[in-house]
Design a protein that fits this description.
Blueprint (H helix, E strand, L loop, with lengths): L3 H21 L8 E3 L8 E2 L6 H4 L2 H9 L7 H5 L2 E7 L2 E7 L6 H18 L1 H10 L2 E5 L5 E4 L4 E5 H5 L5 H19 L9 H18 L2 H15 L3 H4 L2 E2 L1 H16 L1
Parallel strand pairs: 4-5, 5-7
Antiparallel strand pairs: 1-6, 2-8, 3-4, 6-7
Helix pairs in contact: 5-6, 5-8, 6-8, 8-9, 9-10
Length: 258
């Protein structure tokens, strides 16, 4: 049998391990924080597909799953052209996997969008310059997202390539993700029940930006922000089925390249 001294030291080690785990929780990778959009048309799920104790470490399990997935084909890898530059004081990296989209057009729209923020709400651009490492342009399952573990804002490639909309909705999306980045930079550790409040904070920032723009330019931004602010907690910050969103994105890319 164990002696009283052995039991004491065992309990002490267990308590130390528990304390270490609780201390590390704020530093574990977050899932992407994104706004649903028409890029990829993601499916929104109002339930979790994994238990809560797994959802706190999505980055770890994604990397683990990647070990058992086949490597990307050389043909697909060779289609990606990565360009790095700086626009309005913000580092930008474009990972263009779509041969039908010109990187120059994407950068021109991004430049135009950041110029709108710089002109009508320059303090928002200053926050973005301080709070993130870069804006990354790539194919993604929604129009924009903030990736805390990489400290980057993603602006979706095909969203920037659209010419049926102005630069205002793009600027609004970047500003939206910039608010997520600002909250993260302030050291706020998000819990699931706080996400609707944070999402409304982002939408109010979009609304303020849209109202600062010339009326015709800002009207779609204001309309979208108002519609989102009227939603309940369940709908304003929905849980996205990222696997289904990725499936739809891949299907759209195959159709575009056919």
């Amino acid at each position: 049998m164990f002696s009283a001294s052995s039991v004491f030291w065992l309990l002490l080690w267990l308590l130390l391990l528990l304390w270490l785990l609780l201390w590390l929780l704020p530093f574990l990778p977050y899932p992407p924080i994104g706004e649903p959009g028409n890029a990829g048309n993601p499916t929104v799920a109002h339930r979790r597909d994994v238990p809560p104790y797994l959802s706190v470490m999505p980055g770890f399990f994604e990397k683990l799953a990647a070990l058992f997935q086949p490597a990307a084909s050389p043909d697909r890898a060779n289609t990606a052209a990565t360009v790095r530059t700086t626009l309005h004081g913000v580092p930008v990296e474009v990972i263009n996997t779509r041969p039908d989209i010109a990187t120059a057009d994407v950068l021109a729209r991004l430049d135009e969008s950041l110029a709108l923020i710089a002109t009508y709400q320059p303090w928002r651009l200053a926050h973005i310059q301080r709070d993130i490492r870069a804006i990354r342009v790539e194919r993604f399952a929604c129009r924009g997202a903030f990736i805390p573990q990489d400290n980057v804002i993603i602006t979706e490639l095909t969203f920037l390539a659209r010419r049926d909309i102005t630069a205002a909705p793009v600027a609004s999306s970047i500003l939206h993700e910039g608010v997520h980045a600002r909250v993260h930079a302030m050291g706020v550790h998000r819990t699931e029940d706080q996400l609707p409040r944070e999402e409304r904070l982002c939408r109010r920032a979009e609304l303020s930006f849209g109202q600062a723009l010339p009326t015709e330019l800002g009207a779609p931004v204001v309309e979208r922000a108002m519609a989102s602010l009227s939603l309940n907690d369940r709908d304003v910050a929905p849980i996205v089925d990222w696997q289904e969103a990725q499936r739809r994105q891949d299907a759209a890319d195959r159709t575009a390249s056919a």
